[in-house]
Amino acid sequence: MTLETIIDASVLANTLGNADLRIIDCRFDLGQPALGRTLYTTSHIVGSVYAHLDEDLSGPRTPWSGRHPLPDPKALTDTFGRWGIDRNTQVIAYDDSAGMYAARLWWLLRWMGHKAVAVLDGGLKAFVSAGGTLSTTPVLITSRSFEGSPDPDVCASIDDVALGLAGHRRLVLDARAPERYAGEFEPLDPRAGHIPGATNHPYTANLDTDGRFLSPSTLRARLAKTLGSWPAEQVISSCGSGVTACHTLLALEIAGLRGARLYPGSYSEWCRDAARPVATGYSP
Question: What's the predicted TM-score (pTM) here?
Answer without folding.
Answer: 0.96
